[in-house]
Amino acid sequence: MSYIKVVLKSGKDQSLRRFHPWVFSGAIKKIYGEPAEGDIVEVFDNKDEFLGLGHYQIGSIAIRIVSFEQIEITDDFWKQKIKQAYTLRKDLGLLDDPNTDAYRLVHAEGDNMPGLIIDMYGDTAVVQMHSVGMFLIRDKIDEVLKELFGDDLKSIYNKSESTIPFKAKVQPENGYTFGKSSTRIAVENGLKFRVDWEKGQKTGFFVDQRDNRALLEHYSKGKAVLNMFCYTGGFSFYAMRGGAKLVHSVDSSERAIDLTKENVELNFPGDDRHDAFALDAFKYLDDIKDKYDLIILDPPAFAKHNNVLNNALQGYKKLNAKAFEQIKPGGIVFTFSCSQVVSKDAFRKAVFSAAARSGRNVRILNQLTQPADHPVNIYHPEGEYLKGLVLYVE
Ligand code: SAH
């Protein structure tokens, strides 16, 4: 099998030599042919030395490397990669944990499969492609999943409609590619969640906060808790189980608030410690006074691109300052950023500025990140997208 050859400009080979898996369009000197989007192409430096094989796509990231070895990309190649991801989750104890059946099976670059996300919810796999190359091999991926999980897999839902660039000629549609599961209750650390992969955000649930929610439980006893940007209410139930005296969940989406209420009923039927409000975070935080002694701030990615980075940092600063200014003395803030373009340092500086603005004494108790089923490829530091701090506000 021969692949179309792509030659990089002089000096643009350095990141690939350090195994970073992206080739930006500006780094390309010449393409020997006309690859279709999603084709595997072969990348060389301008002295004709082989660098890697990757999926070609029109866009700023033109090639996503899938192999740094000059091999043939066969069905078995993909099977081995998915199997490696599966084995890691098995080693992490996630495949047969009676208390948790929601986890990430494939985390794109973190599992050396750029462009592919697979989240498991019980007997359903939700597959999300971010590259045309991955979308084109969706049938193979489904086959491997069926082989690996056997009877434990009842359905596969493909949710790539809004994640594949709209100009690509593949027209993805969301829908089941295998079975149709009626079970939509997932379990995380023994708590139940209704997951709506069809209409919900991302693959239906934010599996990446599992460990951080578990930590929150230990901080919640006797506290008045505000779960800001609650989505399906994840942090709220952990706070309730941890013995919080009151939990308020806030999200601007009515649908999120409905799901949160439904999930509270699933876990703590009739418990009147919880209330939920569909309101804008910035408005809600304008006037909370010292009502709360534990506040969670888990906003959506404020920056999706580098050119809006500055605005995003201002957003984090403003949001955190509002919490610091009003939280009860001795209060705890769990604050997060899930923007890939906001580095750990930049986020910490934004939180630092917010603390300084409030004039309160603020100390860092824990530094948080994503769980082990969202591994970070050491050569692709951008993969460390979730950053969090637990802060003690005097
Ligand atoms: N903490 C959640 C995930 C948060 S996702 C969990 O553990 O699952 C971010 C959420 O912020 C989304 O549900 C979105 O609807 C909400 N959101 C976005 N902008 C908002 C705003 N201005 N005010 C309140 N909520 C907002």
UniProtKB/TrEMBL annotation:
Q: Name one Pfam family in it.
A: PUA_3
Provide the coiled-coil residue spans: none
Species the sequence originates in: Saccharicrinis fermentans DSM 9555 = JCM 21142
Q: Which family does it belong to?
A: Belongs to the methyltransferase superfamily. RlmI family.
Per the UniProt record, the lineage of the source organism begins with: Bacteria, Pseudomonadati, Bacteroidota, Bacteroidia, Marinilabiliales
One GO molecular-function entry: methyltransferase activity
Residues crossing the lipid bilayer are none
What range(s) does the PUA domain occupy? Answer: 4-87
Ribosomal protein as UniProt keyword: no
Look up the record and report any one GO term of the cellular component aspect: cytoplasm
Q: What is this protein called?
A: Ribosomal RNA large subunit methyltransferase I
Q: Where in the cell is it found?
A: Cytoplasm
Q: Where does the source fall among the domains of life? A: Bacteria
Q: Which Gene3D superfamilies match?
A: PUA domain, RNA methyltransferase domain (HRMD) like, Vaccinia Virus protein VP39
Keyword list (alphabetical) reads:
Cytoplasm, Methyltransferase, RNA-binding, rRNA processing, S-adenosyl-L-methionine, Transferase
Record flagged with keyword Metal-binding: no
Q: Which GO terms describe its biological process?
A: methylation; rRNA processing
Q: Which InterPro entries match?
A: PUA, PUA-like_sf, PUA_sf, RlmI-like_PUA, SAM-dep_methyl-trfase, SAM-dependent_MTases_sf
